[in-house]
Design a protein that fits this description.
CATH superfamily: Transmembrane di-heme cytochromes, Chain C
Order of helices and strands: EHHHHHHHHEH
Structural class: mainly alpha
Distance between the termini: 53 Å
CATH class: Mainly Alpha
CATH architecture: Up-down Bundle
CATH topology: Fumarate Reductase Cytochrome B subunit
């Protein structure tokens, strides 16, 4: 057993799951303008910005270079051919990329088309219209990804690979004999504070523009 997922990555995973659930429920219920929906959107944007930074500065299995592989390796994995990986498998890495990308697009489009910003004056009616459309079509895609993710968890549980437990305690079985590059929790905290400041700056600039 080795530590495969560092604490910052595990906390990110569960907070993202919570915020995504709140966003989807409030959005589908028609409360897109409610404070819960807007607050969750701003929080998940902050969280995603942190995750992007952590994808370059975090522990080995949290880095994008560890799990973003060429399409050929993804195809090999689905065909049952041997593919070496330490953290996310190639399919899981693709899921992470898609989830982060869609959530970023959803959070940014929501922020720019909410009453927090005068997007029509800032970007023009044409671009604002596309952002509003984007904000409407992404939730079904996110729901599909979440469903696929939960289905994969059940399948891997059936195969004897408890992914949920690994994302709680960080431990996982591994045949890799090489030590994994671990994270620095102090660095994670500093990056989080920096992300909060960056997000606050973006929000202030939007208000000033308005």
């Amino acid at each position: 057993m080795i530590i495969k997922w560092d604490l910052p990555t595990r906390l990110y995973h569960w907070i993202q799951a919570l915020l995504t659930t709140l966003l989807l429920i409030s959005g589908y219920s028609g409360d897109g303008s409610a404070i819960v929906h807007q607050a969750s959107g701003v929080l998940i944007l902050l969280l995603l910005l942190w995750r992007v930074i952590w994808g370059f500065a975090g522990s080995q299995t949290a880095r994008f270079t560890d799990f973003l592989v060429p399409p050929r390796q993804i195809i090999h994995y689905f065909r049952g051919l041997t593919v070496n990986f330490t953290g996310h498998n190639p399919a899981g890495g693709l899921m992470v990329l898609l989830m982060i990308s869609l959530l970023l697009l959803q959070a940014m489009s929501g922020l720019l088309t909410s009453e927090l910003s005068d997007s029509e004056s800032l970007l023009g009616r044409g671009i604002t219209g596309w952002l509003e459309l984007l904000h409407e079509v992404i939730p079904p895609a996110l729901t599909g990804l979440v469903t696929m993710h939960l289905t994969a968890i059940i399948i891997y549980k059936y195969k004897g690979q408890p992914l949920v437990r690994a994302m709680i305690n960080g431990y996982a079985d591994s045949t890799d004999k090489q030590p994994l590059l671990q994270s620095n929790r102090r660095a994670a905290f500093v990056l989080f504070i920096s992300t909060v400041l960056l997000t606050s700056l973006i929000t202030v600039l939007i208000f000033l523009t308005y």
